[in-house]
Design brief:
Blueprint (H helix, E strand, L loop, with lengths): L17 H15 L2 H10 L12 H14 L4 H9 L11 H9 L5 H14 L23 H12 L12 H12 L15
Helix pairs in contact: 3-4, 3-7, 4-6, 4-8, 5-6, 6-7
Length: 196
């Protein structure tokens, strides 16, 4: 049981003992267990009142996930479709990288790559209207995940703005999100070595 009455006395990591770090890890395990709830709250925060899109980002995220689910995508890709725009909240100009970083400990390299690069691939559908290069995604043609990212964007992301599409509710996807987030590597820095 976490001792919430004892406040640490160390003031730098250099001073902390093994017992101090055990207490920190106990706290972090309890805090990190609530990560699915924080991500669900982040998804809900996309439910803005007004949007220039036909549906808001919350509905878009649910619809993208529904499309992935109905297409028979693997569960972590359905979850990726659900959370792909949550990075928009804090980092609108590189939200794909933020969403990818958030999910990196829990998903495959392929799904991480798709999340990270989906913004560039989405640009195929609108960059040319805004003075950009719609083929910017082609710089990643050598990636083994290029086609999967193109498919993700074409079939799930860019189509997910239909107000009449039969979209599943967030509660439908919650167990999937919880399963994906339960299989993480934990603190990734603990897996790093001096060699690489």
């Amino acid at each position: 049981m976490l001792d919430k009455t004892h406040k640490p006395t160390w003031t730098s990591f250099e001073e902390a003992t093994k017992a101090d770090w055990d207490a920190v890890m106990e706290y972090e395990e309890a805090y990190n267990a609530a990560l699915p709830d924080r991500i669900l709250d982040a998804i809900r925060s996309l439910d803005e009142d007004w949007t220039p899109y036909p549906v808001n980002r919350y509905q878009h995220s649910l619809q993208a996930a529904t499309r992935a689910y109905e297409d028979g995508a693997e569960e972590e890709l359905v979850v990726a479709a659900l959370i792909h725009d949550t990075g928009d909240i804090l980092s609108p100009y590189n939200h794909g990288e933020l969403s990818a970083a958030m999910m990196k400990p829990y998903v495959s390299q392929k799904t991480h790559w798709i999340l990270k690069h989906h913004c560039v691939f989405q640009g195929y559908y609108y960059n040319h209207h805004l003075g950009g290069d719609r083929n910017a995604r082609d710089k990643y043609r050598d990636s083994p995940y290029w086609e999967e990212c193109r498919y993700f964007c074409h079939e799930y992301d860019q189509k997910a703005f239909d107000p009449d599409y039969p979209t599943k509710p967030l509660e439908f996807f919650e167990p999937m999100l919880r399963r994906v987030l339960s299989r993480g590597e934990g603190h990734m820095e603990l897996n790093e070595t001096a060699e690489g």
